[in-house]
Amino acid sequence: MAVSPASTLGVGLLSRVISYLDLSSLPEVSTVSSEFAAAVSRRLQRIESASVLQAIAGQPSVSERVTDCTLHFCQEDLSSVIAEINFGQLKHLDLSACQWLDDAAVTGLSHHTGSLQYLDLYWSAAIKSDTALCHLIRANKRLRYLSLSGVKATTDRVVMAACSQPGRAMLETLDLTRCPRITDASLMAIGSSYGDSLKVLRLYATTQLSDDGYSALKHLRRLEVLDLCGHINLSSS
Predict the structure, then answer these.
(1) Coiled coil: which residue ranges (predicted)?
(2) Which domain holds residue 193?
(3) Does the residue 35 lie in any domain?
(4) Residue 2 placed within a domain
(5) 97 in a domain, yes or no?
(6) Would you say residue 12 lies in a domain?
(7) By CB distance 3.0 to 4.6 Å, which of 38, 58, 106, 173 could disulfide with 132?
(8) Calpha distance 48→94 (Å, rounded)
(9) Which residues in the chain show pLDDT less than 50?
């Protein structure tokens, strides 16, 4: 039986063939033809493996079409890969508990992303620079979910970057759990910026706040969840 060239195969059939291949080998397959490249890109729109991420790092035609990258609790150091990979269409990025995620990787992401709607950096202890965080947040104006829980580098400057930029989307979830450097200024910025959108605000163990900051939260008209656990300075008034 004659073998059909890739150019004559339907896209649906190509996608089925590719679905049986090992994901980390797909970037090599994408060089066969433009049809294969398109099918590979569809198969790799969601990344959940360190090996797959490494495999597509040198394939911009593939990485630029990825929309979801979820690598939470990944033990393998991918900081250099993350710093360089082009994620032009990435909407969902979960790097929670990736202890290797450092300032260089965050700065690189600020240059290679711009469409993020969901960003989770929970427990990224290697991040030390609030400037890197500011750059990443400013580069992604469409954020609706932002978790900086446990990122000790988070300061008022970072929160301001998520609030003050013209043309930003309306943030719906903001997690600032265990961010010891934020002050009342952050709460005032949040209250004045997201009164009509913010539904979840987590401030667990941010004990340096006062009534001046808390009072700004009254402007959050759509708030459904407010976590103030451990706030010893919260008065009854």
Answers:
(1) none
(2) 46-227
(3) no
(4) no
(5) yes
(6) no
(7) 106
(8) 10
(9) 1-9, 11
Q: Which residues contact 45 (CB under 8 A, 6 or more apart)?
A: 65, 66, 67, 68
What are the helix (H) ranges across the chain? 11-19, 26-29, 34-43, 50-56, 60-63, 79-84, 103-112, 130-139, 156-163, 184-193, 211-214
Q: Give the H/E segment covering residue 119.
A: strand 118-120
Distance from chain centroid for Cα 202: 17
Vertex 20 angle, CA 18 and 25, to 5°: 65
Q: What is the DSSP annotation of 168-213? A: -----EEE-TT-TB--HHHHHHHHHH-TTT--EEE-TT-TT--HHH
- Token readout for 187 is 């709460």
pTM: 0.85
Of the chain, the percentage scoring pLDDT greater than 90 comes to 67
The CATH number covering residue 218 comes to: 3.80.10.10
pLDDT score at 200? 99
What is the rounded CA–CA span in Å between residue 152 and residue 86? Answer: 27
Instruction: Please tell me the predicted confidence (pLDDT) of residue 7.
Output: 42
For 162-207, write each residue's pLDDT tens digit: 997 788 999 999 999 999 999 999 999 999 999 999 999 999 998 7
How many domains, in total, are found in the chain? 1
